[in-house]
Amino acid sequence: MKQRGPGGDRPLSRRPGTGEGAGQSEPAPAKPRIDKASANDQAFDSIIATDKREALKLAPVSHETEARLDRYIALLREWQAKTNLVAPSTLPQLWTRHIADSLQLVDLAPAAKRWADLGSGGGFPGVVLACAMAGTPDASVHLVERIAKKAAFLREAIRVTTSPGVVHLAEIGDNVDRITGPVDCVTARALAPLHQLIGFAEPLMRQGAKALFLKGQDVEAELTEAAKYWNIVPQLHQSRTGDGWIVELDAAERRS
Q1: What is the pLDDT of residue 201?
Q2: Residue 105: inside a domain
Q3: What one-character DSSP code corresponds to residue 191?
Q4: Cα(225)–Cα(23) distance, rounded to whole angstroms?
């Protein structure tokens, strides 16, 4: 099993946050309260702007793509007030936690034009990939989502960003029947355990698609479990945006 850190084999290091200095008598300033309403709070804009700058250092994009992503984030913050699209605790890191995390997939499959995102939810990585693919001839991103409210949001996100996405309101296991034409890459994020994801994606992989699955720190345990059901040769890429991993698979064969 190959493991690669971002930009090569260098491990991703993180510094712990700095605590309060010794001898300070004043209490630490209260953290901003993050809930659905705060997604539209004007005072929250500066937090989002700072996070955006950090995210675009991790995953640079063109001005055109940045403009599309800005429209997407604005729409997400509007809808978040009435529909839970992302965990409220992650709102201050919308750009680093969600946008940059999704954009890094493009570098792992630079020739891919046709993507399928299973369980798109709030649009990560599907809508982000569609924004990135907007200037690519013949590009398309299929977004499969089983919840009607989220599918409605995804359609509106594709519309306002003028991105090449097609939304399928369907159970994840029905994706093969609904996706027409070839798929270069299939992906999923925070959807299901790895062995189940492989089952969803295997029909597309059998037709030539590469799989890129965004997983967390427990990826080794998931790979061990998946190996009980599938013959796979995974390649691991360390995430640029945290402690997670991206599992790359070129093929999968069910164990008899």
Answers
A1: 94
A2: yes
A3: S
A4: 50
With beta carbons less than 8 A apart as the criterion, state whether 138 and 113 touch.
yes
In whole angstroms, what is the distance from residue 234 CA to residue 204 CA?
A: 17
Beta bridge partners of 248: 212, 235
Q: What is the pTM of this model?
A: 0.84
* pLDDT mean over 73-101: 94
Q: Is the pLDDT of residue 16 over 50?
A: no
Residue 141 located in a structural domain? yes
- The alpha carbon of 133 is separated from its chain's Cα centroid by a whole number of angstroms, namely 15
In whole angstroms, what is the distance from residue 75 CA to residue 143 CA?
17
In this structure, is residue 41 part of a structural domain?
yes
Query: Which two three-digit tokens encode residue 129?
Result: 């990939």
Q: Which two tokens stand for residue 201?
A: 């994606």
Confidence of residue 141 (pLDDT cuts 50, 70, 90): very high
The string of pLDDT tens digits covering residues 41-52 is 777 889 999 999
- List, in sequence order, the alpha helices (H) in 168-244: 175-178, 194-206, 219-226
List the alpha helices (DSSP H) in 88-218: 101-108, 126-133, 148-161, 175-178, 194-206
- The helix (run of H) or strand (run of E) holding residue 235 is strand 235-238
Residue 224 in tokens: 């061990």
Helix axes 63-80, 126-133, angle to 10 degrees: 150
Range of the domain at 155: 34-254
Residue 46 lies in a domain: yes
**Residue written as tokens 């599918």?**
151
Q: What is the number of structural domains in the chain? A: 1
Distance CA 102, CA 121 (A): 13
CATH number, position 227? 3.40.50.150
Look at 6 and 14; give whichever has higher pLDDT.
6
